[in-house]
Amino acid sequence: MERKITIEEEIFYKEDYQIRMLKANNLNGILKMGGRGVNQNSYYDYDVSGKISMKAMFERSKINAEDIKMFLRDLKNVVKEVETFLLNIHCILLKPEYIFYEEGKYFFCYYPLAKQELWEEFHELTEYFVKQADYQEQECVRMVFLLHKKTMDENYSLEKLAAECMKTLQEDGDAAVEHQKKAGDKDREDMEEDLQGRDWITEQEIGSGVMRETDTVWAPVKKLLNKRRKSKWGDWDGLHIEEEDFS
Length: 247
What we know:
Number of helices: 6
Strand order of the largest sheet: 1-3-2
Order of helices and strands: EHEEEHHEEHHH
Helix content: 40-55%
Shape: globular
Strand content: 5-15%
Largest sheet: 3 strands, antiparallel
Low-confidence stretches: 173-177, 200-222, 224-247
Number of strands: 6
């Protein structure tokens, strides 16, 4: 079933080069859009079949670091795509209700009548991220506050900021892996030392046990031999051991 959203503007509809470019090409990451004019008003229809808005999606769950990472990747790609077709990047809408998601990818509305700059829109979106972030996940918290803080600077670079966030996330992941590796090495060393200690104790216990067992088994024989010590070697043929000698 086809689904669409419509943005209405009280302005006379005019089909300029932007509309013609969007109709003639399928831009990666940009929703299919059609424009029309009715009674001095302009209507822009976007095909959102099979997709869910960011606003609806995160009303049900919290935003995590992977969500933000995916979004930054797709936003960077769509900005480059728009620039490739000589369109205005400030016409990319960044309000949660106009950003859509489907099967691991975000899609954006291109609105020819947009008045707000992309940098301002993105800063407002980071405020939304701060509100909807999963505060149980440290990586997510660091990312949303880094984004919000950096977008307050004038003339910030979206590409550099996204790269910095990715780098921070990667460094955190590498640090966690290294910490886990060191912890594993330490546990292994402790285990080896423990095993060595146990081996030494075992050897001592086994050695003592063998000696005790040997003494117990051979004590009657030693006793018997001591009794016969005064006999001559020729008397061995007639040697007879009584049961009482082993008691």
